[in-house]
Write a structure and sequence with these properties.
11 strands; 4-stranded antiparallel sheet; Arc Repressor Mutant, subunit A; 219 residues; Jelly Rolls
């Protein structure tokens, strides 16, 4: 499919605006693990995912990561154009979680069209509000939910995203998603294994009892 079918408000643009976007548009294919945007000093542009999966995360002064949201097919990343949103006070890094095809929209082109087009401005504001809601939801999880519930929820989410109960993921990667330490995650997963909820092997976590994990995350 073409860019026109992926961009949410394409039909609300005039011909001149459409041509400006298409003239500046860049298609990219990136491998899993590629860093696409790195902090507020890196104004990459807006990323529209054609296929694949991206992860946006923040990094603490101690070097610990925590995922704030993920991007899938048809999702648009605004934080990769951080220079467009001067009020953002935290640095977001965006990396490819899977091999990904995407389009890059230059910041200055999108920003100029946003000033001209009410539908684009409204869409951008709605998207920004949604992303900050994701951040607030994450903050609530960290503050009010115990780690065992967060790990259970994460494993169930991974299983749903990848449509399999056999998750190819390391303890370090889970720790990075949840803002924890690998050693803590390892102890938690061993507890889950002892409770017959999962089976652990090198680089793999296999869910054995989905219902028990669901009950844990909901308690």
């Amino acid at each position: 499919m073409s860019f026109e079918t992926y961009f949410p408000v394409w039909d609300k643009l005039n011909t001149c605006q459409k041509n400006r976007i298409l003239d500046g548009l860049t298609a990219r294919q990136v491998k899993k693990g590629t860093i696409l945007h790195n902090g507020s000093m890196d104004c990459t542009g807006l990323l529209l995912v054609r296929s694949g999966q991206l992860r946006a995360f923040i990094l603490s002064d101690e070097g610990r990561e925590i995922t704030i949201y993920r991007l899938f097919d048809r999702d648009l990343c605004l934080f990769s154009a951080s220079c467009m949103v001067r009020s953002i006070q935290f640095e977001v890094t965006v990396e490819a979680e899977k091999d990904t095809e995407l389009w890059l929209i230059p910041t200055e082109i999108y920003q100029s069209i946003m000033k001209e087009s009410a539908p684009v401005a409204n869409y951008t504001n709605e998207l920004m509000a949604s992303r900050f809601s994701d951040v607030m939801w994450l903050l609530e999880q960290i503050m009010w939910k115990s780690l065992d519930k967060r790990v259970a929820a994460f494993l169930l989410e991974e299983s749903s995203i990848n449509e399999t109960s056999e998750l190819k993921i390391t303890h370090e990667a889970i720790a990075n998603h949840l803002g924890s330490h690998r050693e803590v995650i390892t102890r938690m997963l061993h507890y889950f294994q002892n409770e017959k909820m999962v089976r652990l092997s090198r680089g793999t976590v296999t869910i054995l009892n989905k219902e028990k994990l669901e009950a844990l995350q909901d308690t």
